[in-house]
Amino acid sequence: MYAFDLVKPGTVAEAASALAGGEAQALGGGQTLIPTLKQRLADPGTLVSLSHIDEMKYVRESGGTVEIGGGTTHAMVAKAVADIYPGLADLAGRIGDPSVRNRGTIGGSLANNDPSACYPAGALGSGATIITDKREIAADDYFQGMFTTALDEGEIVTGVRFPIPEKAHYSKMPQPASRFPLVAVYVAKFADGVRVAVTGASEDGVFRWTEAEEALGANFSTDALGGLSASEDGMIADIHGTAAYRAHLIGVMTKRAVAEMS
Amino acid sequence: MPKDSGIGASSKRREDVRFLTGNGKYTDDINVAGQSYAHFVRSDVAHGRINSIDVSAAEAAPGVLKVFTAADFAEVGGVPCGWCVTDRHGNPMQEPKHPVLAEGKVRHVGDPYAVVVAESLSAARDAAELIEADIEELEAVIDMKAAVADGATKVHDDLTSNLCYDWGFVEENREAVDEAIKGAHHVTTLELTNNRLVANPMEPRVAVGEYDPWKDEHTLYTTSQNPHVIRLLMGAFVLGIPEHKLRVIAPDVGGGFGTKIFHYAEEAFCTFAAKALKRPVKWTSSRSEAFISDAHGRDHVTKIELAMDEEGKFLALRTDTYANMGAYLSTFAPSVPTWLHGTLMAGNYITPLIYVNVKAVFTNTVPVDAYRGAGRPEATFQLERVVDKAAREMGIDPVELRRRNFIDKSQFPYATPVAVEYDTGDYHATMDKLLEISDRDGFEARKAESAARGKLRGFGVAHYIEACGIAPSNLVGQLGARAGLYESATVRVNATGSISVMTGSHSHGQGHETSFAQVVADMLGIDEAQVDIVHGDTARTPMGMGTYGSRSIAVGGSAMVRATEKIIAKAKKVASHLMEASESDVEFANGQFTVAGTDKSVAWGDVCLAAYVPHNYPLEDIEPGLEETAFYDPANFTYPSGGYACEVEVDPETGQVEVLAFSAADDFGNVINPMIVEGQVHGGVAQGIGQALLENCVYDENGQLLTGSYMDYAMPRAYDVPMFTVDHSCQTPCTHNPLGVKGCGEAGAIGSPPAIVNAVIDALSGHGVEHIDMPLSPQRVWAAMHGKG
Ligand SMILES: Cc1cc2nc3c(=O)[nH]c(=O)nc-3n(C[C@H](O)[C@H](O)[C@H](O)COP(=O)(O)OP(=O)(O)OC[C@H]3O[C@@H](n4cnc5c(N)ncnc54)[C@H](O)[C@@H]3O)c2cc1C
After folding, report:
1. Distance (Å) from CA A167 to ligand 1 centroid
2. What would be the CATH architecture of the domain defined by B31-139+205-284?
3. C-beta separation of B571 from B605 below 8 A
4. Is any Cβ of chain A less than 8 angstroms from the Cβ of B391?
5. ipTM (interface pTM)
6. Which part of chain A is CATH 3.30.390.50?
7. Computed over its alpha carbons, how large is the radius of gyration of chain A?
8. Which of A36, A74, A137, B290 counts the most CB atoms within 10 A of its CB?
9. Angle (nearest 5°) at CA B45 between B41 and B47
10. Rounded to the nearest 10 degrees, how much is the dihedral formed by the CA atoms of B368, B370, B373, B375?
11. Which residues in chain B show pLDDT less than 50?
């Protein structure tokens, strides 16, 4: 770790001004950033901790949506939305291990946009809206490739608004070492259609499997997926799985999610 | 009735209170006044020529005491190798120099070429970034077979090739084995890889060097399984420090699994630098550093052939192995694929002819050495896999094929064709017990139930033998060991009867402080709480060889028994004087000395007091005091054996394997503490599950480590292991050590991988899959099922 200054703002406004200027970086739960710092892969100079900002920690339900503060930990989400949005609660409750879930935040996960992270699938699969200190961004516009998002430098994810589907399920095939998804699929069924988001598989990060969405929109059953197979083009290939295996798992995980929901 | 104390009792592990409450004292907890911090600068290329290293900016950086490079070590020796293997042609192995810091070339990712010592670790790390090293990358030698091909790039320019040795065993059998295989009714052939592993003890390595210039005394605190061995190797071969001026302390050590046996450059560095700088020097490995500097384990590529007659009787066995040594020879590396591996190729079976060929190869990877089981898991894995495959090919039940070839209990002692003599065993008994506790009879019903859920269920067995209690010194001396392998113990009885036992064995999780005390307390008939076990400090315990090869109770425990017997003999003399009886009439039981046929008695404590307060004492016949030392050198290895069964379920859509049940029926001879023994088996099997299903250390073709953290190196977790069913009621005590014990530390890791792989192959029997290399990851299982392997 390189030496850094730590500031602990109490409001979003203070955090935003501390982050303006470029050299500072936001610190959420630190579950991604701290290991990076320990390996000296980043040298931010100043860390702006978001952990003391109460206005970023909340869960609010209203009119068919649930809004979650950007500083809310995975463990808090798993508990707080268990009745409101069980599919999302289940996703949050299976991220990492208890210590990760009690530190890591939804804002940090979405800002980081790891190609194997869980929340991006939940957000894209739900058609969520990412709320920042400056604007609101639709999930479809927000995720822009591996570790890349629509966020500007210093922009803070203050909340996420999820439309609550009729049903949703997250099927996760863990990578044996990290237990992040090797491939995971989030399926959400709304009155007006089905969304299927895939994480862990693509070199471009989280994406929607539109063929499956159409097929399931017409006939929400595992049979509808019968003839479909995801293409292995652009899939991640590494020691844990070839591109062909990941493409295969997309089909299996989607089918399993649908089976759970049927 | 289970006993509640002494030999055979499941006494609670007394050391666990301090471990579980976070009060253990580990090497990193040791901070010496005025200490400085060492940061090793390690190569990020696998193979490179060091053209120049400019440390001037780093040395000028704030807080830096000195930057060391190979030039500072010109006057000291290299890190030595403790075993010399002689090749098939009678020549000694090729033995390259292993400098403390890389000289001329770097030879693996992680090879240290400079060390910054500074007032703080962050100052040292900051300064390290200022070092300008001009290292010209060379072609990396990674694949073993390519490494020994003609014209291959050499890891060591001064050796003739990358071949360390070409070993044949038993060389005289070579042609007879070839002939027998040619003429056999059936030959089963299997090619396999024994995957490379990183030991990953919970505590990473640490070294603290301290030097007292006024006494010219060195102290090294280190995370070692054998502090005396470190003192000997480092003092005599690297730094030239005589033993009386060098104290090595290995306090609480958080797991070793083999990788903390070896003498490492970091230990020599901290000892050397403490004198050079006249400041204590501390180094604590990070986890990332451990992946590229702790000796790795296994990494064999093998072809094995088993020849049988019509009935499935084994006629001959031939095995060819390439064994990875990595870039340098670690302390015991040459012995692992040879004497710890070839001598076990008979397994539990009568196989008249065996030939083992091993080519040990240098590559641009981290050195490879002993890892839990060391050589014996490699032997057991290939043998138990090929026997299983043979059973399928011959249409014989795999349990039945094993039984047909088992050495019968009437045949012990049994001399194998691979140089060892098994003293005792009863393999049919452990197999019977295994089938009972694993409920093999109920398997078909369970399989049908899994099938109804779309899952493939498989049942696999393996039966292992291992050679433990290493070892008779004069035998291993003939085989190339450069040290004796006895063990020592001093039993110091204090004036009021409490006891300190100083042992050369070392406990780093095994629970010696509990089980060793049980033995001494039982022999003396006193309370276990009156006995303390002292280990891990060369200044407090006599010369010892440490803990590995499941030798602690068999060798260290035997030394302790011998020393305690001397104590009893002397105490009887003292008692005979106190009771005014003839020494030959004195009996000792339950802590009381009595005279046969009289009501005279004197208690243990009174005898001890008399020995230290010799007012009424036969000073003309016996010395005061009650302290005895014994060195024990075993007459043979011990041969634990057992049957393991694994039941798995495979998800055919994902290839995910789940271990549903695991049973172990072990014969460890006599058992001192059943709970500790069971714990050792649990831990060993968990590591076996790790090797079989999860763990894999992978280099790419350029020698970059692809699995350098837990993001990619898969350790077993609690949910990867089932509840174990373990049994050690089959006991054929060792015939040549006083406790009749065989050792249990490695069995679990030896017997489990083949049982697990056999179970998965059984589950996939309908899919034409004959073998999958470990680890049987979902991707590999799925690929094998779909012909995409
Ligand atoms: C052992 C382990 C296992 C894990 N397993 C999983 C898993 O299975 N699935 C999974 O999805 N994840 C997993 N994670 C990652 C975990 O969920 C992280 O918590 C998460 O990815 C990052 O959240 P954080 O709050 O810790 O962010 P930090 O690590 O603090 O920050 C990450 C990045 O986001 C930025 N940032 C943080 N908060 C905000 C914000 N509110 N607005 C803008 N930028 C912000 C930071 O500047 C930094 O660049 C695991 C992590 C570990 C250590």
Report:
1. 26
2. Alpha-Beta Complex (3.90)
3. no
4. no
5. 0.96
6. 168-261
7. 18
8. A74
9. 110
10. 70
11. none
